Amino acid sequence: MEKNQKIVCFSIVAIVILTLLAVWGMTLWKKDTQTVQEPEYQEQENEIQQEEIQENETDTENNTFVQPEENQAETQDTQAIDELKEETGTTGNTEIYQVEEEYDGRKVLAVKPSIQTKVAFAGMMKHAQPTMEEAEKIANEQLPKNAGVWIAENSRTACLTMLQEVLESTYTVDDQGYLKVVNKEKQNQYDKKLEQAIQSDKQYLIDISSTCYTVDQLTGEIGPYLYSELDPYQTYHYLQDSNRMVIFLTENAGHKLTNTEIIHSVIDLI
User: Fold this and answer.
1) Domain-wise residue ranges, the chain
2) How would you class 28 by CB atoms within 10 Å of its CB: exposed for 0-12, middle for 13-18, buried for 19 or more?
3) Which of 137, 154, 169, 213 could form a disulfide with 123 if both were Cys (CB 3.0 to 4.6 A apart)?
4) Is residue 205 a contact partner of residue 124, using CB atoms and an 8 Å limit?
């Protein structure tokens, strides 16, 4: 009997020892496995993060602008346009017009936005009144290709000076004329709005000029629009075609406005 008890006790002790050894062995095996796998897993995670960063950088650098397409109003038949021209005494070339509907349902003629923006941009680049042929040529050859905020060469220094005075972030203009954020450790609400415009899929073409060239609705002739002379408190004038906007900031010749008023108003616009 006593001998049997010893055998049972010995067996229990042996089982406990074997169990402890098994647990200890499993613990060592898990640690070794983690030691081998964790660097590999971390390396894969780092590669994924790096790919995401590169994709984001590529999206910012290659923010190609999608050219506005002709809308239905711009591609309508000429019969309705000619009828309205006769009714209203409009004398411009039929091809530059489209029919629009007023709030009360009346049909009216308007110069196509694509024509107005091309003429405005051509005047911006030529610094003089363009012909319709020149406007088409300049637009085809010189319109910026990417989205974002683009500033005409003669206005870049002045624009950066105004931004530096009014905003918190630091900005620069790259070789292609696009506004970029250099440092945004400090940002106010207007810095944030401007950064959104810079990174958007829209195109903003900006010049500091109190004169812009537009197409007269009645005659179809190109001429200067001296908006700041008509209203010295007008901070800007713009023309828009879908996701493209051509903006002229006032030269503020009479010093009626502050740079803060000008910059804030145009950022609110875009």
Assistant:
1) 1-30, 71-110, 112-269
2) exposed
3) 213
4) yes
Place of tokens 């009360």: 104
Q: Which residues contact 187 (CB under 8 A, 6 or more apart)?
A: 168, 169, 195
Helix, strand, or coil (residue 217)? coil
pLDDT tens profile 187-239: 999 999 999 999 999 999 999 999 999 999 999 999 999 998 889 999 999 99
Alpha carbon distance 181, 163 (integer Å): 11
Mean pLDDT over 4-27 rounds to 57
- For residue 171, which phi and psi values (nearest 5 degrees)? -125, 160
d(CA 88, CA 110): 12
CA distances (Å), origin 44, targets 36, 49, 52, 54: 13, 9, 13, 15
Contacts of 5 (CB under 8 A, 6+ apart): none
Q: What is the H or E stretch that residue 182 is in?
A: strand 179-183
Task: Say how many CA atoms lie within 13 Å of 225 toward its Cβ.
Answer: 22
Residue 150 pairs in a beta bridge with: 178, 205
